[in-house]
Specification:
The strands form two sheets. Strands 1-8-7-2-6-3 form a six-stranded mixed sheet, sandwiched between helices. Strands 4-5 form a two-stranded parallel sheet. The chain contains nine helices and eight strands. By secondary structure, the protein is of the alpha/beta class. It is globular and about 55 Å long.
C-alpha cells in the first residue's frame, strides 16, 4: 500500500503533464499559421479576424486545462474577492511555481480577457511554451543590467502596453521577476513571508504608457505548503489553494515602488496566516 499510493500519484502527474502538453500543442498548431497570416497581411480587417480566432483558441486552451485542474485532479480554489470585471486589466501576482500560470489564466481568462505575459527572452527556446510565446507575440525581456538591454526592455514593455490599449486583453506581470525559493529569499534578505522583493521597473513603464482608466488586478496565491512542487500539483496536491483578489485604479497609484511594497506586505500577512 505504501508503494501503490506514490506510484498512482506519479502516474496521475504523468497523465496530467501529457494532457497539458497535448492541449497546448494542438492549439499552438492553429495559432502559428494565424499569427504568420496576421504578420504577412497587416491590414485592419485581417488583423481583426485573426484576433477573434486567437481569442477563441486561447480561451479553449485555458478552459481545457481548467477542466482538468478543477474536475479531473480535483483542485479547489478558495477565492476571497470578486471575479475579474474589466476588459483590459493589468494583473500582478506573487510567483511560486509554473502552476501559477494556469491558475491565473483560470481566474482571468476562463470567463474574461486573454492574457499576455512579460516573459524572459530565454523562454522562447522552451518547446511548446516558446512557440506559444512567439505565436501570441508576448513581450520578451532581457532583464539585464546593461543600459542597451534595459532600453530594449523599456521599448518592449511600452509597446505591449500600447497594444494592450487597442485590443481587449489582460497584461500579466510578476513583479518579483522570478519564482520564489527560500534561497533567493535569503540572498535578497526579503522581509516578506514566502515572497521576494517586488521590482517596480516594469510597472513604472506600464503606469506611464497605459490608459489612465486601467485597473490593476492584484492576485495572491497561497498553496499552503512550502516549497511548492509542480509535480505534486499535477496530481492534485494541495487539494485546496487559497486565493485573494483585489482591484486598484492605476491612476490612483503615484509611487509604484511604495505601492508594491504595501501590496507585498498585505500578501505577506495573507501567506503567514496559513502557517
Amino acid at each position: 500500500m505504501h508503494l501503490i499510493l506514490p506510484i498512482t500519484r506519479n502516474l496521475v502527474s504523468i497523465f496530467s503533464l501529457l494532457w497539458v502538453l497535448t492541449n497546448l500543442t494542438f492549439w499552438v498548431l492553429i495559432l502559428i499559421p494565424i499569427s504568420v497570416l496576421r504578420w504577412l497581411i497587416p491590414i485592419p480587417f485581417v488583423s481583426r479576424v485573426c484576433f477573434v480566432v486567437v481569442d477563441f483558441v486561447y480561451r479553449m486552451a485555458v478552459r481545457t486545462d481548467s477542466f482538468w485542474m478543477r474536475d479531473v485532479i480535483g483542485i479547489e480554489f478558495l477565492v476571497d474577492g470578486e471575479p475579474n470585471r474589466y476588459s483590459s486589466p493589468i494583473v500582478i501576482c506573487n510567483h511560486q511555481s509554473w502552476f501559477d500560470i494556469p491558475i491565473v489564466q483560470d481566474l482571468v481568462t476562463r470567463d474574461g480577457p486573454i492574457i499576455k505575459f512579460l516573459i524572459k527572452r530565454e523562454l522562447v527556446w522552451v518547446p511548446v511554451i516558446g512557440w506559444i510565446c512567439l505565436a501570441l507575440n508576448f513581450p520578451r525581456l532581457y532583464r539585464g543590467k546593461d543600459k542597451s538591454l534595459q532600453a530594449a526592455d523599456f521599448a518592449s514593455i511600452k509597446g505591449a502596453t500600447q497594444d494592450h490599449g487597442t485590443e481587449p486583453g489582460a497584461l500579466l506581470v510578476f513583479p518579483e521577476g522570478t519564482r520564489f525559493t527560500a534561497n533567493k529569499q535569503r540572498l535578497q534578505a526579503s522581509p516578506y513571508e514566502r515572497l521576494l522583493v517586488p521590482k517596480s521597473g516594469g510597472m513604472k513603464i506600464i503606469r506611464a504608457s497605459a490608459d489612465p482608466a486601467t485597473h490593476v488586478m492584484d492576485i495572491t496565491i497561497d498553496y499552503g505548503v512550502e516549497p511548492v512542487n509542480i509535480w505534486r500539483c499535477l496530481h492534485g496536491r494541495p487539494k485546496q489553494i487559497a486565493i485573494k483578489i483585489r482591484y486598484y485604479p492605476l491612476a490612483d497609484i503615484d509611487d509604484i515602488q511604495a505601492w508594491l511594497n504595501e501590496r507585498w506586505q498585505e500578501k505577506s500577512v495573507f501567506l503567514a496566516a496559513s502557517h
